[in-house]
Structures are given as structure tokens and as C-alpha cells.
Design goal:
137 residues; single chain; mainly alpha
């Protein structure tokens, strides 16, 4: 593992921790905006629209973008680690265990966790965007 990969894991972890902290702090607002009832009359929707827009533009969208960017950034290193692992396995079989790297394994696990978090936040972004569209109808 190169020095860049060794540094990427803690830096990425800190970035994801900040995103996770923001997400957990804002989760109730995000859920509320998805479940908020839409008033029947368009004239009564202004406060609901403003609330949902605030959650969309200033809460869930930045988290979704940040986690997606983080996921894309670590894809190349993750693919490299996975390819190297398969090459070692195919050449040495289970004797390749001597080349085991906990850091590499953590990096790949971190990628899948980050990708899952990213997909989840993007899904919530679309839900809130659809809610906003319904409010604007």
C-alpha cells in the first residue's frame, strides 16, 4: 500500500464522519420534510414550500453531493486493491494470506459503507425533490 492510500483512509474517514454527524443532526428535519402534509390550496403552501426547499438545498443535497464525491474519489484505490487481492489469490491461493493487509481490507469496507451512505442520501434527495414538485403543482 502506498503512502497516499494510507493517508486516504483517515482523511476520508474524517470527511465521512462530518457528513454523518450533519446527517444525524438533521435527520428529523429531513424525515419531517418527506412526511409533511401538503395543504390543499396552493395559496396555503408557501411556508411548507419554504421549509422543504430549505431542507432540500441546505441539508440533504450538500450531504448527498459530499458523500457521492467521496465515493467517486476512492473508487480508483478500491478497484486497485481488489484487483491486487484477486491476483494474489489466483497466484498463491490461500498461501496469499501472508500478504493480508488490514488497512486494504478496511479501505474496501470503507468504500462500500460510503457508497451505501451515498446511495441512501441520494435516494432521500430524490424523495424530497419529488415532495417539492408536488408542493409546486
Amino acid at each position: 500500500m502506498t503512502g497516499v492510500q494510507t493517508c486516504a483512509l483517515p482523511i476520508s474517514s474524517i470527511f465521512l464522519a462530518v457528513l454523518g454527524l450533519l446527517y444525524s443532526s438533521w435527520y428529523s428535519d429531513i424525515r419531517e420534510s418527506i412526511n409533511i402534509p401538503i395543504p390543499t390550496y396552493k395559496e396555503d403552501r408557501k411556508t411548507v414550500r419554504e421549509h422543504v426547499e430549505e431542507i432540500f438545498y441546505f441539508r440533504i443535497l450538500p450531504i448527498a453531493i459530499g458523500s457521492s464525491i467521496l465515493t467517486v474519489i476512492i473508487i480508483p484505490n478500491t478497484v486497485k486493491i481488489i484487483i491486487e487481492s484477486f491476483k494474489i489469490y489466483y497466484s498463491l491461493k490461500f498461501r496469499g494470506i501472508i500478504n493480508y493487509s488490514a488497512v486494504n481490507t478496511l479501505f474496501v469496507a470503507f468504500f462500500f459503507f460510503t457508497a451505501g451512505f451515498s446511495l441512501h442520501t441520494v435516494k432521500l434527495t430524490f424523495k424530497i425533490r419529488n415532495k417539492l414538485k408536488k408542493i409546486l403543482e
